[in-house]
Write a structure and sequence with these properties.
422 residues, six-stranded mixed β-sheet, Rossmann fold, single chain, alpha/beta
């Protein structure tokens, strides 16, 4: 079995249950899984995401998963003048072998977080989301009969579509129109304090990060070496932290080289708290007015990139990942993202999510500004694709909220409305 390690002190300890923090430590930090297998052995595509089980903190496997898929780009690479562009996809792209039925790489989180729950677990898992994460967890929990409470902003409910009605074990609580992801997180924090409920944990959950890390594992095992550059748009930055951690494990493996992939991350202008902090070489995020932030979130096309309290400053978080890899941060406008999405679909033949389009736009800008070597090995993480096609090919069912909360509900209000749902 795996162990856990504090990134503040280096202390290694057992996972005594649903551990999200290092015990008996006061300095806030992420914890990291430490696996007995120092070399990764793939179990085969028939195992879905669990082909990477050697480096996943799980107690069981669940049905229905699909691993990220990597391929070498020809058309988009030629368009941009790149000789070694590799695209890692999480989404619906049957011809490539990608069968994420929620069309998002958030399934990598859901299938590992829920597999970290022991089979005898009888508590309700609480998950906050701006859309894609909620859709992924809802499907995985519904298919595997795991009790789940979702907390989602009302303005993001159009993301909660499915190809079949959900099991009654999944319940949805929304924060009212005008709220954002941060408000949903506040609601989830209150709900997680209820007896019989447990927080999913976000970036603090090693299963979430190591599930997302399978994108980097997919790329490195396909290319047979660690990439030079890693492009991804970020909302919390958890996926980029995960890629960095996977990179460190791949170096320790010894078969994929010893380079540290340069993280090339992007946010959707004008919502750019991590970009602003990084450009000022600031570990703390800069002050951001809540009302101004909500207005900025309304403006951006990629709503999932809207975390106001990301794991940026914490030890082991995104600031450390960017520092260790000599990373860079970019901005992309809505217009640049729309154009990038159109170019990707024209070249590669599949539609992509707005967040993925932000990453493509940043790659395009990096090429035009000559900030990358055109012969370098580039990994482009397409974190969601094929949704338009999926919706054409499948009947759709929506998940409606069981309750809608105003801003800043009290614990008592949450208790009175949530407990009876289960």
């Amino acid at each position: 079995m795996y162990k856990l390690q504090s990134l503040a002190t280096g202390t290694i300890f057992d996972d005594s249950g649903w551990v999200l923090d290092a015990p008996n430590e006061t300095t806030p930090c992420l914890i990291r899984a430490v696996y007995p297998a120092k070399q990764l052995t793939l179990k085969g595509p028939e195992h879905g995401i669990y082909t990477f089980a050697d480096w996943l903190p799980i107690y069981r496997t669940l049905k229905g998963s699909s691993a990220p898929v990597t391929f070498k780009s020809e058309s988009l690479a030629n368009e941009l003048g790149l000789s070694n562009l590799y695209i890692t996809i999480s989404g619906y792209w049957p011809e490539k072998g990608a069968m994420n039925m929620t069309c998002s790489f958030k399934e990598t989180e859901a299938y590992t977080v829920c597999a970290r729950l022991k089979p005898e677990n009888d508590k309700v898992l609480v998950v906050a989301s701006a859309g894609n994460t909620a859709r992924a967890f809802a499907k995985v929990c519904s298919d595997n009969q795991i009790p789940l409470l979702l907390c989602v902003p009302e303005d993001c409910l159009d993301a909660l579509w499915f190809d079949a009605p959900l099991n009654d074990c999944v319940k949805l609580a929304a924060t009212k129109t005008g709220s954002d992801y941060f408000d949903a997180i506040n609601l989830s924090n209150l709900a997680a304090q209820l007896e019989g409920f447990i927080p999913e944990g976000g970036a603090k959950n090693v299963a979430r990060r190591d599930g997302m890390a399978t994108t980097m594992l997919s790329a490195a095992t396909f290319i047979n070496q660690i990439p030079d550059y890693y492009f991804q748009a970020v909302g919390s930055g958890t996926g980029a932290i995960a890629a960095w951690e996977a990179n460190l494990r791949l170096i320790e493996d010894g078969r994929f080289g010893n380079k540290k992939t340069k993280l090339m991350l992007s946010q959707n202008e004008p919502f750019q708290p991590m970009y602003d902090a990084w450009k000022q070489n600031s570990r703390p995020l800069l002050p951001l007015d809540d009302d101004k932030a909500r207005l900025q979130v309304e403006e951006i096309a990629a709503k999932v990139l809207s975390n106001r309290k990301p794991p940026y400053s914490i030890i082991g978080g995104l600031f450390d990942a960017l520092t260790d890899t000599n990373g860079e941060f970019f901005l992309a406008t809505n217009d640049e993202a729309f154009k990038a999405a159109s170019l990707f679909e024209k070249c590669e033949g599949n539609d992509i999510h707005p967040a993925s389009a932000v990453a493509v736009a940043s790659l395009i800008n990096a090429v035009s500004e000559n900030t990358i070597d055109k012969d370098a090995i580039i990994m482009l993480n397409i974190t969601g694709c094929g949704e338009k096609r999926f919706k054409r090919e499948h009947p759709l069912f929506e998940l409606k909220p069981a309750v809608i909360f105003d801003f800043n509900p009290t614990f008592q209000e949450v208790k009175e409305k949530i407990v009876p749902l289960f």
